[in-house]
Amino acid sequence: MDLLFTKYIKAEISYEGIIRIERFEYPKEAAREALLNAIAHKDYSGFVPIQISVYSDKIIFWNEGQLPESWTVKTLLEKHASRPYNPDIANALFRSGYIESWGRGTIKIIKECKQAGIPEPVFSYDSSDISVEFRKDIYNEKYLHSLDLNERQVKAVLYVKKNGKITNSDYQSLNDVSKATATRDLTELVEKYSILQRTGDIGAGTHYFLIGS
Q1: Where do the domains of the chain lie?
Q2: Whole-angstrom Cα distance, residue 156 to residue 144?
Q3: Tens of pLDDT along 153-185?
Q4: What CATH number labels 2-135?
Q5: CATH-assigned architecture of domain 141-210
Q6: How far is residue 120's CA from residue 110's CA, in Å, rounded to a whole number?
Q7: pTM (whole model) above 0.70
């Protein structure tokens, strides 16, 4: 945790009076919980170390392990019983105060991400691979320009971030452009850049949302 939050994860610095406030790209409690989960649920017979991969827009905690029989990723997203792969390790973590309550780790991770204003984490399970992926709030002007979006598209994405959705008519008014231009720009945001998702057929009543929202 110290290595992650001193070397790899940046903090935005602000001040309240003379008090220095650090707001990290990812909530510390969520990352801590993901790491503890990886330790408690890892299959140590495979000799593959827990892996933490840090990218420019996301961070992934991965471990080799197995979910209980009949469990799916959906089970992890709801209140569930505690069935750790390594009960002795989980019990040691609980008794030493590292884990507050069993069976609540994934829910706590989701809650911390929501409170921090970043997208909900993505939990994945495939055969013997278990991972949780945290994503930054990538919808900022600097990042959007790095994708080569035009100014109209950047403005539209920021509009959706603030208002939750946008229509073709909204796009026309926002950027003072024709319907054809709005349609072309929005289609690129959906099909080329995979930033927006569309509900309904192209035309009246169609709304565009941020992917994953």
Answers
A1: 2-135, 141-210
A2: 11
A3: 999 999 998 899 999 999 999 999 999 999 999
A4: 3.30.565.60
A5: Orthogonal Bundle (1.10)
A6: 6
A7: no
Give me the amino acid identity at 132. Answer: V
DSSP string, the chain: -HHIIIIIS-EEEEEETTEEEEEESS-HHHHHHHHHHHHHH--GGG-PPPEEEE-SSEEEEEEE--PPTT--HHHHTS------SSHHHHHHHHHTTS-SSTT-HHHHHHHHHHHHTSPPPEEEEETTEEEEEEE----SHHHHHHTT--HHHHHHHHHHHHHS-B-HHHHHHHHT--HHHHHHHHHHHHHTS--EEEESSSSTT-EEEETT-
Instruction: Report yes or no: 32 and 15 within 8 Å, Cβ to Cβ.
Output: no
